[in-house]
Amino acid sequence: MTTRIVVADDHPVVLQGVNWLLEREGDLEVVARCQSGEEALAAVREHRPDLLVLDLNMPGLSGMDVLRGIAEERLALRVVLLTADLRDDDLFEAVRLGVRGVILKDMAPELLVRCIRTVHAGGQWLEQHLTGWTLDRLLARESAKQQATKTLTQREIELVRLVAEGLRNKEIAFRLGITEGTVKIHLHRIYDKLQVTSRIELANYIRRQLG
Question: 3-state DSSP call for residue 2?
């Protein structure tokens, strides 16, 4: 079965090279080559590919903007990042938005093919020396974040974010338009749900898990 792929990079040489690399595999078909984020998002909408090979740094819409667009529109495809460099924060955001494969441009070309096949099959690919965080740790953090947002109500999430900002009960009550007593009731419920015992523990938990 042929895997249909859109490739997006603002450098024509990279586009041509990736196209040649993938097309020679026989079962990997490049259905569109894009030089901007707008082109990439339009190509994904039009061709509904199985996979997108995406650079983060492009004119107009960035690669991260493309990922957000894909997530917002719930477009069903897998994404591999092909990039020159990637910060930890960008990596976490990319993983949160659904990316499961990352390849640096200075790596051996055949690794891109292996990454694509792994991700298309439902696996994950991240070179260990890319960052101090492994993909497993990123996914664990995202899982914990999802669990926290499922455990807490929207009002409780609003309240703990204010705690994490250092606001006191009176300030939180004013900001949310509720009484200090109600803030205390919410906090006790939150402590029980998250199994923390103090504002400091709560603030640290929220910074770690809800970012």
Answer: coil
CA 106-112-115 angle, to 5 degrees, is 130
Q: How far is the C-alpha of 6 from the C-alpha of 32, rounded, in Å?
A: 5
DSSP state of 128: G
C-alpha 59, offset from chain centre: 20
Report the C-alpha gap between 185 and 177 in whole angstroms.
15
- The chain-wide mean pLDDT, for the chain, equals 83
What is the distance between the alpha carbons of residues 183 and 189, in angstroms, rounded to a whole number? 10
148's tokens = 């926290």
CA distance 169 to 184: 7
Ordered by where they begin, the domains of the chain are: 3-133 (3.40.50.2300), 152-209 (1.10.10.10)
Q: How much is the pTM?
A: 0.62
Helix or strand run (H / E) with residue 21: helix 12-23
Q: Cβ distance 70 to 26 under 8 Å?
A: no
pLDDT (tens digit per residue) in 105-125: 888 788 899 999 999 998 888
